[in-house]
Amino acid sequence: MAYDPDNIFAKILKGEIPCHKIYEDEDTLAFLDIMPRTEGHALVITKEKARDLFDIDPAALGRLMAVVQTLAPKIKQAVGADGVLIQQFNGAAAGQTVFHLHIHIVPIKQGVAPKPHAGEMADQAELAATAEKIRKAIA
Ligand code: 5GP
């Protein structure tokens, strides 16, 4: 299936939809998931027009994953988590709901189960406060 240039994350990249941004460079944007599985659940997206993991060249994928590797420990530290779950879904059958390649960073606290994937909308003020904490940890 072709890449849809009007998917939600493409609109976020174009600035047509707001997000709680935590990081940006020339290839990558990272922001908080609107339905977080845990506090600090972030999405790292490529600026390439790629639907999923199989729709991007390896060098661009490498740049995306390098950002995930850098941000994950900082997010973990910012929210006081003990571990980090990295998730990535390919195709509706696998649970993908937004067809623009993205990597989930889900900080996990010992003994606290994450909420279901794409479950409940978070409070915007809480997301804003978490994003601010994470931006400080990244700076
Ligand atoms: P996936 O495609 O990997 O299944 O997940 C897409 C993720 O995007 C979900 O975790 C969902 O909560 C999140 N999401 C969906 N719409 C929006 C949105 O408009 N803004 C943000 N920040 N996250 C979104």
Short structural summary:
The protein is α+β, with helices and mostly antiparallel strands. It has one domain (8-138): 2-Layer Sandwich (HIT family, subunit A).
What does this structure look like?
The chain is α+β, with helices and mostly antiparallel strands and 139 residues long. The protein has a single domain (8-138), classed as 2-Layer Sandwich (HIT family, subunit A), CATH 3.30.428.10. 31% of the residues lie in helices and 19% in strands. It contains three helices and five strands. It has helices at residues 8-13, 58-79, 124-138; strands at residues 21-24, 28-32, 42-46, 83-87, 102-108. The protein is globular and about 40 Å long. 29% of the residues are buried. Bound molecules: guanosine-5'-monophosphate. Guanosine-5'-monophosphate binds at residues 8, 17, 19, 31, 33-35, 89, 95-98, 118.
